[in-house]
Write a structure and sequence with these properties.
The protein is α/β, with parallel strands linked by helices and 324 residues long. The protein contains 12 helices and 13 strands. It has a 7-stranded parallel β-sheet, with helices on both faces. β5 (121-127), α6 and β6 form a beta-alpha-beta unit.
Length: 324
């Protein structure tokens, strides 16, 4: 079994890679190691994976069509986990072309490679952001998602349309997963939980947007990995062989409750600065995971209080030299 994981040095990519490597799967990982956030953190994640003899890494941008094609022609992958993307809602307002390059052109390259090199299953990461201006909660997969409120969301919706077209035209088994606010050890420094932790420990203000009146379906990384692996093992078989699922916690919490959990785990009270809603942000997310539960018996297991405590423990250990 050979599996390609794009975005292998990313937060979800590293955890998925490690889970599959432990199963004895041969993993080929690619990542362009861009500087959207700390490259040292990405390299540290790769170091964890490189201890496995069944792991190979190639520094590559998925925009590189020839390089990607050569990789597919060399390794004859059974399955593909496509996680590489330019992330971040707010950054898409500042750097739109980075999103069209990676999330549109890059994804097209992946689809073309899967078309020309038949695979058992392509699983790709979509996002809860595709629900955009929808106000009916919980979000369900049958809702119309034609009102993105950021370019990032628009590119992820485009991925779903492109994937469906390729599945229909060429019979590629494809599953898209709309991920909901993934957090945990080795997480992304641009995410709120990471930023809050750093600021609280340094006794700096934390920026709380929409005056704290935000609700998020925080989903712990171990639950996400379990869901993705189960989906990877069960390709769709209908015509076209295409599925789309929410992958969340199905138990949203108030942002202020998450901050309180952080304060408890850190043993420090945050200095709070309340600010208006930022452009591109949504007020609430809530994933219905009923369809995914029916498909692969998925059910999240980790409460936000437990997940935050595990993240804080990792953070203190990873950054212990900076905290002393």
């Amino acid at each position: 079994m050979k599996i390609l994981i794009t975005g292998i040095a990313g937060f979800v990519g590293m955890h998925l890679g490690e889970a599959l490597l432990k199963r004895g799967v041969e993993i080929v990982g690619v990542d362009n190691l861009n500087d959207y956030y700390d490259v040292n953190l990405k390299n540290a994640r790769l170091t964890r994976l490189k201890k496995y003899p069944n792991f190979k890494f190639f520094k590559m941008d998925i925009v590189d069509r020839k390089g990607l094609s050569s990789l597919f022609n060399t390794y004859y992958f059974n399955r593909v986990l496509h996680l590489a993307a330019q992330a971040g809602v707010r950054y898409s307002i500042e750097q739109p072309f980075k999103y069209t390059d990676s999330n549109i052109t890059g994804f097209l390259n992946i689809l073309e490679c899967c078309r020309n090199n038949p695979i058992e299953h392509l699983v790709y990461a979509s996002s809860s952001s595709v629900y955009g201006g929808n106000t009916v909660l919980p979000y369900t997969e049958n809702q119309v998602v034609d009102t993105p409120i950021s370019l990032y969301a628009a590119t992820k919706k485009s991925n779903e349309l492109m994937a469906h077209a390729y599945s229909h035209l060429f019979g590629i088994p494809v599953t898209g997963l709309r991920l909901f606010t993934v957090y945990g050890p080795w997480g992304r420094p641009d995410m709120a939980l990471f930023k809050f932790t750093k600021s609280i420990l340094q006794e700096e203000k934390i920026a709380i947007f929409n005056y704290g009146k935000m609700v998020r379906d925080f989903t712990y990384i171990d639950d996400v990995v379990e869901g993705i692996v189960k989906v990877l093992d069960k390709p769709p078989t209908e015509t076209p062989p295409y599925k789309i699922f929410n992958l969340g916690n199905n138990n949203p919490v108030q942002l202020m409750d998450c901050i309180e959990a952080l304060e408890v785990s850190l043993g420090k009270v945050a200095i709070k600065e309340y600010l208006p809603l930022q452009a591109g942000d949504v007020l609430a997310t809530h994933a219905s995971t009923a369809l995914l539960g029916e498909w692969v018996a998925y059910k999240s297991q980790t409460s936000v209080s437990d997940g935050v405590a595990k993240f804080v423990a990792w953070y203190k250990k990873y950054y212990e030299n900076e905290l002393t």
